[in-house]
Each structure stands twice: as structure tokens, then as C-alpha cells.
Design brief:
By secondary structure, this protein is an alpha+beta fold. It contains six helices and four strands; from the N terminus they run H-H-H-H-E-H-E-E-E-H. A hairpin with a 2-residue loop joins strand 2 and strand 3.
Length: 162
């Protein structure tokens, strides 16, 4: 699922009717699939997002924060699906990037993670504190071997099947 510049950068986009519909569509996609990737990159190499930001006179740091906020809100919705305790569609969440991880934790009201294991060299697999939520998260570095993501997904799938 690819996010548009508006979805990534508008402060209250996910509260709009269009935003709520997109979140519902995402939740439906997650419920039908083992793996969904929410992509914040534009098909045109992020030129669309830069143009959108420039038209609104956003600096790079503000863009980074808004994208992290947007992903955090999206993740929260997919985890909680229409509210706390509603039994969301997303049970495992892979997060790339520290800004996005911190924002997602903030949206979920989580202050700390507890490492369970190392999924791949330098890639932690932590669980949220007991009672916080029924999901696990892990962060993938933005660098590493080209097949790292695939190795992690395969290991995760084997773990779930066991």
C-alpha cells in the first residue's frame, strides 16, 4: 500500500472522511493477507512528496516528523481497528526507521520494548510490555544485506507456524 503525499504530510488527514475510508481499506487488506507493506516512497522517487511539501513551505525536518506521525497513526489504527480493545487486524508490525518506531510507540502509549530475540544481525524482535497490546514489533535498520528483509520475513513466518 503506497501512501500519497497528502496522506503522509497533512496533519489531520486520517481524521477526514477520505482518511478514515483509506484506513478501513488498509485494515481490510491486512485481514486478507499475511504481509502488507505500507510504502512511504513515491513511485517517482519522492518528487511528488517534495513538491507537495515545498508548496506548503515545509522544511525537511517537518516532513520527516509528519511522515513518522502518519505511519504511527496508521499503525495504531491497524493494531486497534476502530478503537482500543476492538481486536485489530494487525498482530505483528515491522517498523523501519527509529523516528517511525518512536512515533508508533507514542501513538500506542508504549514507553518501552522488551527484546525477545535477534531476528537477524542487528535486528531486534521486542515484545510490547505485558498488558499493553497483543502485538510484537521489530525494527529493521535502513542498511544491511540486500536479502535481509526476506530472511527476516521467512524467519517470522516459520516462528508463527510453530
Amino acid at each position: 500500500l503506497r501512501l500519497t503525499p497528502e496522506e503522509k504530510l497533512e496533519d489531520h488527514y486520517w481524521e477526514t472522511p477520505a482518511g478514515r475510508e483509506k484506513l478501513k481499506a488498509m485494515a481490510e487488506a491486512v485481514s486478507r493477507s499475511d504481509c502488507i507493506i505500507i510504502d512511504t516512497n513515491d513511485a517517482d522517487g519522492n518528487r511528488s512528496t517534495r513538491r507537495y511539501a515545498e508548496q506548503r513551505q515545509m522544511k525537511v525536518e517537518e516532513m520527516r516528523q509528519r511522515i513518522a506521525d502518519s505511519i504511527g497513526r496508521t499503525a495504531k489504527y491497524l493494531i486497534e481497528a476502530d478503537g482500543p480493545g476492538a481486536g485489530g487486524t494487525c498482530r505483528t508490525l515491522m517498523i523501519t526507521g527509529g523516528d517511525v518506531l518512536i512515533q508508533t510507540m507514542g501513538e500506542l502509549g508504549v514507553a518501552e520494548l522488551h527484546p525477545i530475540c535477534e531476528m537477524d544481525p542487528g535486528v531486534a524482535f521486542p515484545a510490547l510490555p505485558a498488558g499493553a497490546k497483543t502485538i510484537c514489533t521489530f525494527q529493521v535498520r535502513g542498511f544491511g544485506p540486500s536479502d535481509q528483509l526476506l530472511r527476516i520475513l521467512n524467519k517470522l513466518n516459520r516462528t508463527i507456524e510453530e
